[in-house]
Specification:
Layout (H helix, E strand, L loop, with lengths): L1 H8 L3 H5 L12 H21 L2 H7 L5 H29 L7 H18 L7 H11 L3
C-alpha cells in the first residue's frame, strides 16, 4: 500500500501496473521511448531498493517493473495466506486465562485488525469481534 502510494506520487504507478506500456519502436516515438525507459529504470530502482534481502533473488533477473510487482504480489499472497490461517487459528484458540480483560480485549482486537488488513474482503466486523471476545473470556 505504501509502495503503491509512493509510486503514484512519483508518477510511476501506471508503468508498474502495466497501464503505461512502452511506445512502439518508430523514429517518431524515439523521445517517448527514451522517457519511458528512464521511468522504467526509476520504478525498478524504487522497487528493488525497497525489497528485503530474502526476496531480492526472486526479482533479480526480472527486467520490467510490472514483472517485479507481479512477482512480489504472488510471493506475498502466498505468505499472507499462511499468515491469515495462523491468525485465524490463534484467534479461535485464544483464551483470556492470565490476561486482564483490557489486555485480552487488546490482543483480540489486534489479531482481528491484522486479519482484516490481510484480507480486506473478509474484514472482521464488530459483531464478530464481540463473539470472539465472549468465547475466550474466563469467568
Amino acid at each position: 500500500m505504501c509502495m503503491e502510494a509512493f509510486l503514484q506520487g512519483q508518477d510511476l504507478w501506471e508503468l508498474v501496473s502495466g497501464v503505461d506500456e512502452i511506445p512502439a519502436d518508430t523514429p517518431e516515438n524515439a523521445k517517448s521511448r527514451r522517457k519511458w525507459k528512464i521511468k522504467c529504470g526509476k520504478a525498478l530502482f524504487a522497487l528493488r531498493t525497497s525489497i528485503s534481502k530474502e526476496f531480492i533473488d526472486h526479482v533479480h533477473d526480472v527486467s520490467s517493473p510490472k514483472e517485479v510487482w507481479d512477482t512480489l504480489e504472488r510471493l506475498f499472497s502466498k505468505q499472507n495466506t499462511a499468515r491469515l490461517q495462523f491468525l485465524e487459528n490463534e484467534l479461535a484458540m485464544l483464551k483470556q486465562e492470565g490476561m486482564s480483560i483490557s489486555e485480552y480485549f487488546l490482543c483480540v482486537k489486534n489479531i482481528c485488525a491484522e486479519i482484516s488488513e490481510l484480507d480486506p474482503k473478509e474484514k472482521i466486523n464488530d459483531a464478530r469481534l464481540r463473539r470472539f471476545l465472549i468465547r475466550g473470556l474466563t469467568l
